[in-house]
Amino acid sequence: MKNSHVQIGPISEDWSNRPPGIFSLPSSPFPAIIPAMTQPTQLPTPAQAWIAAMRPRTLPLAVASSILGGFLAAADGLFSWTVTLLCVITAVFLQILSNLANDYGDSVHGADHVERAGPKRAVQSGLITSAQMKQAMALFAGLSAVSGLALVIVALGVAALPLVALFVVLGGAAIWAAVSYTASSKPYGYVGLGDLFVFIFFGWVGTMGTYFLQAQALNGLILLPATSVGLLSVAVLNVNNIRDIESDQKAGKRSIPVRIGPQRARVYHWILLGGAVFCALLFVGLTYHSPWQFLFVLSLPLLWRNGTAVARTTDPLKLNPMLKQLSLSTLVFVFTFGLGQIL
Fold first, then answer.
1. What are the backbone angles phi and psi of residue 297, rounded to the nearest 5°?
2. Which of 13, 92, 151, 166 places its Cα 20 to 30 Å from the Cα of 45?
């Protein structure tokens, strides 16, 4: 869940005189991304480099489960704008933390290199130093913790100490998962467990956690739409991993597509998309009260388009647009499904 492009053009500023700091660029030139050329080339500003490293295109997918949980709470007459907004903010902080940690971790472990098909990353290309990236990771880990704690206290109150403690543990687990995907000494993303963790946190935890913090109770049927958004989130990761098969193999990153091969990974992609639709249909069938509940069917052509494009595309670079398309399609699926439950 992770595509951003840093645009390079004519140099207009001397970066060597810029003081070091968390939001400044290193003083070294940029040999990894700037080839010899006759015309000067402009480097991105520090703000542009950091925005690219945070990968804004991944954020819609990050908030999808929180939005879905809010819709499901609203369908039961339990919606809270404050709680849902804090869930979304916390999810954004966690996603940015994950993106920064992924940039740092893949550079350290060798998955980001000049032959990689995806966009060049900030640490690997020299735009941001490893030390600066670690400082940014610490900053967003802190923001995630503060936002998550505020969320739990607002939703449950300090009197509900056992529940507060439970969600503090879940929040800590989410921060650990965001960092450890690629940035730990034994990154779980390198042994093929990324899909499982994305499914759990982007599906079950995000959706059911948002619902519970408003309802302070769980409805077992909500597991079905939570599974839908979790499977779609895994599908986004799968497109990313299909694109990066060759570079991941060289770096020893054993993602699911690396383990099963590109053709089976495309079949796996259809299974993820089909499973998401099946769970949504099953939920509507079990809770049916209005034809509006099938509103999400309007989003299915977008999922079909993604599945067929991924199945037919063999050039890794041409998979990049499919990442953004599926992220936005997941958000459309969530909004149409959620609206259908409250209309």
1. -60, -25
2. 92
pLDDT of 16: 41
Tokens at 93, concatenated: 């902080």
Residue 93: which of 149, 147, 144, 22 has the closest Cα? 144
What's the average model confidence in pLDDT over 150-166? 89
> Residue 48, Cβ neighbours under 10 Å: how many?
14
> Which residue in 281, 280, 95, 304 sits closest to 179, CA to CA?
95
Which helix (H) or strand (E) covers residue 173, if one does? helix 161-180
Please compute Rg for the chain using Cα positions.
Answer: 21
- CA-wise closest residue to 283 among 267, 295, 270, 265: 295
Residue 201 CB neighbours (<10 A): 23
Whole-prediction pTM value?
A: 0.83
Assigned token pair, 24: 């400044």
Taking each continuous run of H as one helix and of E as one strand, the counts in the chain are 14, 0
Environment class of 123 (CB within 10 Å of its CB; exposed 0-12, middle 13-18, buried 19+): buried
| Average per-residue pLDDT for the chain | 86
Q: Would you state the pLDDT for residue 19?
A: 45
Query: What mean pLDDT comes out for the span 243-262?
Result: 92
Helix axes 300-312, 262-287, angle to 10 degrees: 170
Nearest to 294 by CA among 266, 242, 333: 333
Instruction: List, as own/partner pairs, every contact residues 6-9 make where C-beta atoms lie below 8 angstroms and the sequence separation is at least 24, other chains included.
Output: 6/44, 6/48, 6/49, 6/52, 6/119, 6/120, 6/122, 6/125, 6/127, 7/44, 7/48, 8/33, 8/34, 8/41, 8/42, 8/43, 8/44, 9/41, 9/42
Arithmetic mean of pLDDT, 220-249: 95
Contacts of 135 (CB under 8 A, 6+ apart): 22
Nearest to 262 by CA among 219, 304, 316: 316
Check residue 192 and give left, alpha or beta (phi > 0: left; psi -120 to 50: alpha).
Answer: left
